[in-house]
Amino acid sequence: MKRMVCRYLPATIIAAVALTTMAVGESPQEDVIRSTSSLPPGGLGAAIELGRELVHNTSRHPLTAAYVGAALNCTSCHLDDGTHPEAATFVGVAAAYPAWSPREGRVITLEDRVLNCFMRSENGVRPPNGGEASVAISAYITWLSEGAPIKMNPNRPLGPNAVKPLQIDPQPADPTRGADLYETHCAYCHAEDGAGSDDGPPVWGERSYNRGAGLSQNAKLASWLRVAMPLDDPTLTDREALDIAAYVNSHDRPGFVLEEHLGPLPEADVVD
Ligand code: HEC
Ligand code: HEC
């Protein structure tokens, strides 16, 4: 399926969605183009629109900026406003919740999952559960999941179209080879020092995701790179992606201590 480059179009015009109920390895069965004309009327439609705005401008929007520590928006990783079919898509995600979270040792809701990404991938703190930002983002993800059959995930907090794992053993990885590959394929957008440029956000250092984030694990970063980077030309092999991931994650980035990221939530609400 062709990559949808929604971020180059006014967001109010189109959100292109591959609504997939596919098993791993199959192609999407059904492509659904969702335009804002299919938004529900009234306050719900407005919340969905706000949610799309927040995932696109997370680090800048007044409702979310204070909860973000990294120079990253949700859509820095959930490409094309979460509609990219493979790069951590939001399509279908809502159908997997409530889901079991092994990390937290409890069942979590979609809102919990959204807020966890603020703490880890965004290196920030959790906005209030049930607050405007949290509800709007969850409404947007749920809208993108309409029509997907509900199938709560009893194993992991992940949707049916989650990034596919690598086909190779993640050990050992070769960060020295990764450095050469980074130089060739990545540095012109993300900079030699990983601090980012006008063409790509930081991939290590103080403004990057922290050590609690999924992408800080080499295997997860590699499986995402395989389908997402280089932007618009994701052609890395598993091995190349893994070596680059080992190089990227060998650099300094913010640490993760849960207590520093809980934000204004009652602590009893979060278990890790
Ligand atoms: C640095 C990259 C990055 C950023 C920024 C990021 N995420 Fe994620 N997110 C991921 C990855 C990677 C996964 C899949 C993690 C895994 O495989 O365990 C994920 C998973 C999720 C999931 C669960 C998906 C599923 O299939 O159940 C949700 C929901 C989510 N993110 C929402 C958000 C929201 C909302 C934001 C912004 C506040 C955000 N993420 C920011 C990388 C990121
Ligand atoms: C043409 C420019 C370009 C190239 C080349 C490129 N990226 Fe990106 N990358 C981006 C942009 C832009 C984003 C954010 C996507 C968005 O906002 O739509 C991004 C996002 C990312 C992210 C998630 C957000 C973050 O900064 O942590 C990672 C990790 C990443 N790229 C790593 C790489 C690696 C590794 C390579 C080389 C294999 C690479 N990129 C090549 C432009 C590029």
UniProtKB/TrEMBL annotation:
UniProt name for this protein: Cytochrome c
Pfam families found in the cross-reference section: Cytochrome_CBB3, SoxA-TsdA_cyt-c
Leader sequence residues: 1-23
Domain of life according to the entry: Bacteria
An MF annotation (GO) of this entry: heme binding
Family annotation (PANTHER family): BLL4482 PROTEIN, BLL4482 PROTEIN-RELATED
InterPro entries listed in its UniProt record: Cyt_c-like_dom, Cyt_c-like_dom_sf, Cytochrome_c-type_DH
Span of domain Cytochrome c: 173-252
PROSITE patterns in the cross-refs: CYTC
Alphabetized UniProt keyword annotations: Heme, Iron, Metal-binding, Signal
